[in-house]
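ARCHIVE CARD
SHELF: 3
SLOT: left
DATA:
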Amino acid sequence: MTTTVWVPRDAGALSLGAEATAWAIAREAAARGLDVTIRRNGSRGLYWLEPLVEVATPAGRVAYGPVTAAEVPGLFDAGFLDGCAHRLGHGPTERIPWLASQQRLCCARIGVIAPADVREYEAQGGLAGLRRALGLPPAEIVRAVSESGLRGRGGAAFPAGRKWRTVLEQEAPQKYIACNADEGDSGTFADRLLLEGDPLAVIEGMVIAGLAVGATQGYLYLRIEYPQARRALDEAIAAARAAGLLGDDILGSGRSFELEVRLGAGAYICGEETSMLESLEGRRGEVRVRPPLPAVRGLFGLPTVVNNVVTCASVPAILAHGASWYRDYGCGESRGTLPLQLGGNVRRGGLVERAFGLTLRELIEDYGGGTASGRPVRAVQIGGPLGAWLPPALLDTPVDYEALAAAGAPLGHGGIVVFDDTVDLAAMARFAFAFCAHESCGKCTPCRIGSTRGVELLDRIRAGTDTEVALERLAALCDTLRQASLCGLGGMTPNPVESALRHFPEDFRARS
């Protein structure tokens, strides 16, 4: 009898030795004359257990991890192919507490299926949303997304249905769907996990968006630093086309939609939607002045829906189960779930998909297990390198858009990075300015020049040179950046600086 063993092949697991582990399992099985099929999946997001190997048993999959190549012979000796106990064993995968307590809607299939297997995808609930969408008028699809409360998961949190409706209402010879997969924030990896573990969900979401607004062409803008995601996408797009999910006759409906992957060249600014559109058109990634909005005049001057990967991957479940089902998750104006990415100085880092409303403390202590160093948490940065810093006193803040914004920490793409009490917040504030200076597209003066001046001012403050004058100028500079920058890069740079000054003023005293 053949035993199936699952070994992830996403970039995170590969960086931790998953390829060597897969080869070791194949060699050991051959040496022992055992019939083993190795299948490759995406990571489930439990990164402290990677490489996480799963064995298919009659009772379900059983997990072992972290499994290095050197551990493989011992696993065979212990009978892991039958799901037997071992010190690396975690029992049935779905019962691992860290995973079992999540509410995986968007990420339900990552780690469960082979990324480009359409039959497995459909068996796990995929395509139900697309099939329903094919039977609805475009306005009804848009209404479902609007009533679900889905907001863009890329950072701005703009209501997805409102953007779709604007594109639907435009009269144009061609419309486009652009998926922004230029995931550049430090501490974020949800887009990559989805693209490497369940790319068919992103494809399905883009096709549904095309049906909703009358677009027949889609582009997925992928950062060049994600080669494994590119391979997974190429395989999934080919499989989707072969299964009739793309092309001139989607599932025999007579409707059409085509999809191409385009690579970005590593510019952080292209995470901003108008810069991404400039890059897609073959020009330098540079912010456009708005209005007009991309929904009115976007790619090639035509109406364009721009959503990020998580937004696109959330759409199929909404169409499959209904808007009210999705709205039942979450709280206030933050509906549904969000894949939170927990990293930094934590014992258990990885992907946590939960409905809006859990607290930062629950995330860091219950899921993260506290700091990896064992030292106290001193600061948490939320929303990427331009996100705000929060102190331990604010860890009971709920994770939702409004509550975090009220605390001065926009949620952004859902990256949560933890630091212990050795962190220097003045150095982190300086980094924010240096990062902005390095990544600025250069179009607007506040961002291009202001970020460099910010580095200089913080160097003076930390050196104790005219500190009070420098602090006054720093406050004025932050106000100028926020009010006058053309896009979020310059406009958000004050977030980490001002929050660090507000919550950790002692770090800005002169160094002896």
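SLOT: right
DATA:
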Amino acid sequence: MKQVKLVATPTDELDISALFQQATSFLRQYGKLLLVVALVGLLAGFIRYWKTPDLYTSSIVLQPTILTEPEQIAVISNWCELIQKKERRLLAKQFNVDISLLRKVESIKVEELQKIFTPKNYTAFTISVVVRDTTILQPLQNGMLYALENSGYVKEKLASRKNILKSMIQTVQLEMTRLSKLQQVVETSFQQPTNAGGHLMLNVSDISTQIANLEERKLNYEEELSFISPVNVLQHFYTPLNPTFPVLLKQLALGLGGGLFLGMLTSFYLHYRRKTMN
């Protein structure tokens, strides 16, 4: 009886050495093309870096005193939309500045510092700008403050708050005048012979304490009145020394990556065309 030998059939296993040889052959044929295109990509990245104008980033920290933080952020978000929509002329009217200043502004971004909002909690927020010229930062800040302080609603609220403070100062002053007169009457009565001397002395002490408390309250009202404004500037725009964009290494990396990608596409196309022609 004959014995049948089983012949092993070749499997579809990946031949690493063959794949490596094909890759080596491909690089020998198209390596120079890939190198040239990569160098062209690097050159394009450098040219883009050289031609792109420098952009600088700065920020200002503000604290609203009339509007709540969400209301104030909504107003500033409208500025961001106007910049994105190229409506700089409308924004220039709000800022009361020349439109040439806003042409140097690339973007405006607002961000709240405290994420949790509670009523009457006037927290701060940050406005970040990207500009082409750092000399416009101070005029830009003045324009922003002008827009925040001169809207009709804010001006009415500010005038109402000032009137309230003036009325409170006047009321405190009248009360202080009344207590001063009463103190004089008590002191006069104390100088006259009476059996209630101890009681009158206690009243004089109480009146003096009340006058001192009212004086402190009056000074606080006067200080608030002198510093009152729709928004407080906690940090002014600073002048950055170095541009934020463009970054040389990033531009070179983008150029190199783009060049290699185009080189690979071209090489695969030439390789495929060569095989089909054969």
